[in-house]
Design goal:
By secondary structure, this protein is mostly helical. The protein is 66% helix and 2% strand. The longest helix has 28 residues, at 153-180.
């Protein structure tokens, strides 16, 4: 699958070879995401949504284009609503749709190398990334779908490239931080697992904020401070000065285990 063309993720069309590149296909996906965004906006914290119906899609399409299309426009492309939903989710989560998230990572790499205050720069990067996540309709859809059991295979397939891309973007940031400070991850903390932990901290805090903003004084800046604190604690705990190859588990056993009883 192409990493730069989100339409490459749209694979449930009747004729993918010709219909992926059609403007009407893109419009139908776009209006679907808009309808879900509108449903989310009706809820104060944006944690519920309703999948749009075929009739709603065509009505919205006609409003956007000024045309009078019928349901045949949709049915010519997708055999079922399930096929459309699978394509909508895969298209919305494709890495090419997350340009803003990628840009935050790229700017953080440059800023953390030169900033006089690491903590202030980390808080600023955390705020920008949180804003990018919370303003993305597809992120909120992902939170809801990941809470279902079992997660549909099509949704799992869409999530894999999203997390792979995020891992690639942020690995560059963390490697730059470690290299610049002459530190390295401890031998029992691989970079892939470190990035997964960082991602889990951010997504968990954002989910907490969306469901209970009063816990953070309804302040995204406060949320960013907590995320930055967690990230700094994790990066210091999971890394060591160059030449120190002591595993994290051994370090914790040495420093945190209770003294043996006489």
């Amino acid at each position: 699958m192409s990493s730069t063309d989100a339409m490459a993720a749209v694979t449930h069309l009747r004729r993918p070879g010709t219909q992926q590149g059609q403007h009407d296909t893109l419009l139908l996906l776009g209006v679907g995401l808009d309808l879900i965004g509108q449903a989310l906006a009706q809820d104060s914290y944006g944690l519920t949504f309703t999948w749009p119906s075929r009739a709603q899609l065509i009505k919205k399409y006609n409003m956007v284009t000024g045309l009078r299309a019928s349901k045949g426009l949709f049915e010519d492309r997708w055999a079922t609503m399930g096929d459309y939903y699978a394509d909508l989710f895969a298209w919305a989560l494709h890495p090419a749709q997350w340009v803003r998230h990628q840009q935050v990572a790229e700017k953080a790499t440059a800023n953390l190398r030169t900033a006089p205050s690491f903590s202030a720069t980390a808080r600023h990067a955390a705020l920008l990334d949180i804003q990018a996540l919370t303003q993305a309709t597809s992120f909120r859809i992902k939170l809801v779908l990941c809470a279902t059991h079992p997660i549909a295979p099509a949704h799992r397939a869409a999530l894999r490239p999203f997390y792979q891309a995020a891992r690639d973007w942020w690995s560059v940031v963390y490697e730059a931080v470690l290299n610049g400070s002459r530190r390295a991850l401890r031998p029992d903390v691989p970079m892939a697992e470190f990035v997964a932990m960082m991602t889990a901290i951010e997504e968990g805090l954002v989910l907490h904020y969306l469901s209970s903003p009063q816990s953070f004084d309804r302040s995204m800046e406060r949320l960013a401070e907590i995320l930055a604190t967690g990230a700094m604690a994790l990066i210091l705990g999971a890394s060591a000065p160059e030449g120190d190859a002591e595993p994290l588990s051994t370090l914790c056993d040495r420093l945190l285990s209770y003294p043996s009883q006489p």
